[in-house]
Design brief:
By secondary structure, the chain is mainly α. Helices cover 76% and strands 0% of the residues. Helix 1 packs across helix 2. The two termini are 13 Å apart.
Length: 99
């Protein structure tokens, strides 16, 4: 309990807790965005079945804007998440060394 109080009082410990909460929120947001994305029809299953989304005129641009936006937001959040986890790793190593 004493170590927990020391970690909460120190400035590095507060940042670790705040950034940890932000990292958990980002992980949930990334999971939801990945689940909302539509499946790509150009994979192995479409090659076996012989279907292609590019066969008709609207095949390539059917839902291009929403899917592209979700894909870009997912990519940006993933990059922020990776950087945040690296920062948390560095902060946690510094907090553990000073405690």
């Amino acid at each position: 309990m004493n170590q927990l109080m020391h970690m909460l009082v120190s400035a590095g410990g507060v940042w670790v807790i705040v950034l940890g909460i932000v990292a958990m929120c980002l992980a949930v947001a990334i999971s939801v965005l990945v689940a909302m994305q539509s499946t790509k029809e150009d994979g192995l299953s479409s090659a076996i079945a012989g279907s292609s989304g590019a066969d008709n005129f609207f095949g390539k641009t059917k839902t291009l804007t929403k899917d592209r936006l979700r894909s870009r937001v997912t990519l940006i959040l993933s990059i922020v998440f990776v950087v945040l986890v690296l920062v948390l790793t560095i902060l946690t190593a510094n907090v553990n060394l000073t405690a």
